[in-house]
Design a protein that fits this description.
The complex is a heterodimer of chains A (165) and B (155). Chain A is mainly beta. Chain A has one helix spanning 2-21, and strands at residues 39-42, 44-46, 56-63, 66-67, 79-81, 84-94, 97-107, 112-118, 127-133, 139-146, 149-153, 156-159. Chain A has one domain. Chain A is built from 1 helix and 12 strands. Chain B is mostly beta strands and 155 residues long. Chain B has helices spanning 2-18, 145-150, and strands at 36-39, 41-43, 53-60, 63-64, 73-75, 78-88, 91-101, 106-114, 118-125, 136-139, 141-142. In chain B, the strands form 2 sheets. In chain B, strands 2, 3, 4, 6, 7 and 11 form a 6-stranded antiparallel sheet that branches. In chain B, strands 5-1-8-9-10 form a 5-stranded mixed sheet, with no helix packed on it. Chains A and B meet through α1, β7, β10, β11 and β12 of A and β4, β6, β7, β10 and β11 of B.
């Protein structure tokens, strides 16, 4: 009897932990949207010369506050969005280094857009993240200057000092 | 004696490595009257088992801001990319947003926690309470590697 109670408690703890992991409002494209009628958002992957470092993956993490399913392993999954004004959250990941920024942009139907990241050009310089129109190669909205930071350590969130970039 | 000296030097080197070398420094001629002031906030919860969430200014135009979460930061008026940071015990995250800042105004970085791994962040005018950025989702990432693995937004 005690063992069964323990099992139930264990199941409840696991269920609670999994519920905490579920995104709040997952983004879902309207079912009637196609690449012809909607805008397509894509991630990008920039190879890094060092064999010890991960490639840089730039992705769309949220559309109008609704989280996408894209992460560093789904960076190449296209996201269909209805044309018009949208608030996009763009992120770039490399190992445990992350940058994330939000921008409101106007998207055109039957257009493809890709998230780009430009790393710091020099010590002390910021990184830039932006959305690019793949047709024209132009910047949509503006490039956002961001400071890369490392995933929280026991001492807190650490911004990457330029010497370590 | 020399062992203690080595330990002190090692500790200083470790601390120096953690300090951003390019911390944001406001222009010397800026005053609270000519500049916009940004300040963090603390969201306290009634539940004693839920840790307080501290919101702070992480970076301005890509330059990290040092100092405590409640330390006011002077910024030249105009449009800037403000990186907001959230900290709850061993969890943290951040997001940047464009914001138009007016002189002689104080803006607060605000946050609202949603469950274990998400928070919403925005910047508001301290006097009017009006938001000057949109409410943005922050993924809260834990320092513990196992919890990081379980966090979908950290993948």
């Amino acid at each position: 009897m005690m063992a069964r109670r323990g099992l139930w408690i264990g199941c409840a703890v696991v269920a609670a932990a999994l519920a905490g992991c579920t995104p709040r409002h997952p983004y879902r494209a309207p079912p009637d949207l196609t690449p012809e009628t909607g805008a397509v958002l894509k991630g990008s992957r920039t190879p890094v010369a060092s064999p010890l470092a991960e490639d840089v993956r730039a992705i769309v993490t949220a559309v109008d506050g609704q989280l996408t399913a894209n992460g560093r392993y789904e960076w190449d999954q296209p996201i269909l969005v209805p044309p018009g004004s949208h608030l996009l959250q763009l992120a770039a990941l490399q190992g445990q280094i992350k940058v994330e920024a939000a921008i409101r942009v106007s998207l055109e139907p039957h257009q493809e857009y890709v998230v780009r990241l430009q790393g710091p050009s020099d010590a002390g310089q910021p990184a830039f993240i932006w959305l690019e129109d793949t047709g024209s190669g132009g910047v949509v909205g503006s490039k956002l200057a961001v400071a890369p930071w490392v995933y929280p350590q026991p001492s807190g969130v650490i911004y990457v000092p330029p010497a370590r970039r | 004696m020399w062992k203690r000296g080595i330990a002190v030097v090692a500790a200083l080197q470790m601390l120096a490595a953690c300090t951003p070398t390019n911390s944001y420094k406001p222009a010397p001629d800026l005053t609270p009257q000519t500049a916009a002031t940004l300040v963090g906030s603390k969201e306290a919860y009634r539940n004693p088992f839920v840790k307080d969430m501290r919101m702070s200014v992480g970076a301005i135009d890509g330059v990290p801001v040092g100092g405590a979460w409640d330390e006011p930061v002077l910024v030249a008026p105009g449009q800037h990319t403000i990186q907001m940071a959230a900290h709850i015990a061993t969890r943290g995250g951040g997001i940047a947003s464009l914001a138009e800042l007016a002189p002689a105004k104080t803006y607060t970085v605000r946050g609202e926690r949603h469950g274990q791994f998400h928070a919403t962040a925005w910047i508001e005018d301290k006097d009017t309470g009006q938001a000057v950025t949109e409410r943005l989702d922050i993924c809260l990432i834990d320092a513990a590697p196992l919890i990081q693995l379980l966090t979908p937004c950290a993948k």
